[in-house]
Predict the structure of Pseudouridine synthase RsuA/RluA-like domain-containing protein.
Amino acid sequence: MLCTTTSTTSPLNSFGSPWPDLNDGLFYSDAVSTTSDSGLTLIHFYSSKYKNSAPLQGWLQRIHNGQITIDGEVVKEPKAILRDGMELVYHRLRWREPDAPYLLQVLYEDDDMIAVNKPAGLQVLPGGLFQQRTVLMQLQWRASKGSPSLETHGSHPVPVHRLGRGTSGILLCAKTKVAKTSLAAFFAEGTSLIGDSSNTNMEQSKRRKISKIYRALVNGILKQDKIIIKQPIGTARYPGVAKGLYVASASGKPALSKVEVLERDSQLNQTLVQVEIESGRPHQIRIHLSFIGHPLLGDPLYDVGGQPMCFDSEHEDESFAEDGYKCISVYVAVDGLVFHFIIFFPPH
């Protein structure tokens, strides 16, 4: 369980549009090159280049369904020969994304930026099964409806940092290119100083323009009131995660978290902590707290030591979403072990 701390003295207003039942699907483009692709058949191209997306039979079905075009024309012949310069487009069919909240509270807004209170369960940027049900999409929908402050400079609101899907808290979003550049630089300040123990950089770290402070409920009772965690974070191969799963790794990038105990509950064997992160590695708090033996309460992925214990849909590569299929995610606990199943239902 993880959240950032939020506070406001002015009345809050909210915005958000309900999600449509199905998203718009996705379009993936490729260009045929002379050296490697020219002369291949259509089915050979897709089944060999994107074999992690679907097996041979899956790509045959997609071609027969008319989901692939060559130079704008639908092609249903798997043995069609590709020539240099051809443009291929694969249309991934629409699907129903997992449930997610859609309302966002506005904490602060001016002509350059907007700060919103992101609810837990809402993804910030598109990825995996969540391509439409994101903060970014709600911001774009709001802009397209003609909010006066968004029209002023022809802005395009975008989040300048991330919060995990399961995390609630303040999310800063830029409405102009200048604001995006400036805010991104402020967030990068702390990360760039990690790993350099010089006095100069330590002083600079104290004067950072943006501080990231979270509250988390963890398993077990922390004995120390304050802990500094300097465990590097890297990636490791993991099923379903094409680019690797982030884990505690001695060969990873430097990361630093400052943990302070706020409350201990010995009856429930839980501790409420405040965490200030100097760097911004993916899943840093989840990894660091599990590394010291106190995983976040309810975290289905990271176990003691900062290593994974089971598959988590938050890290699910989009290749697991079979094209045009609906799926449900099920967790089953047996003798202390957690198993994760994805069950697919073919389209009607």
Summary: Residues 6-10, 311-322, 324-336, 338-348 have pLDDT under 50 and may be disordered.
